[in-house]
Amino acid sequence: MAELRTDRLTLRRWRDSDLEPCAAMNADPEVREHLGDLLTREQSDASVAQFQAEFDQRGYGWWAVEVQATGEFIGFAGLDQVDDDMPFTGVEIGWRLARSAWGQGYATEAALKVLAYGFDTLGLPEILAVTTTANLRSQAVMRRIGMTRNPADDFDDPSAPEGPLRPNVLYRIPGSTRI
To answer: What is the pTM of this model?
Structure first.
């Protein structure tokens, strides 16, 4: 598993010490606002185990993100295969940060490094990003990293219940338009 570094962040393999702060992040209603139900500690730990297994299998996935200056775990960022039930295919980029890390440019910084890995190392022709129509913070990150949205691509997430989590937007960036 490749370790990625930015000026302020390290995107790295998961450690046992990440499980507790990751579970706290996944139990935070503000962090989960656009994601669905809060996760229990067991569900959060199982997600991390799945992240590690998928990364080992595919060579990409979700990196744990830590602040270099402090070693603090602040969330995760990475690439994932689009779920089979979606109305499109490909590889999507994503991020989830603890609320204490919001508003500091960490999501954009991590996402730019992940994009570079996807294009330069994996040779992906395009990377997608998906979020709810109401998640304006994530959409702002998507625009900052050079992604664009065609409203004709917006869709209802078939895995989400009726309500605010169902309407979603789709952003794209082709590898040919490198930042």
So the answer is: 0.93
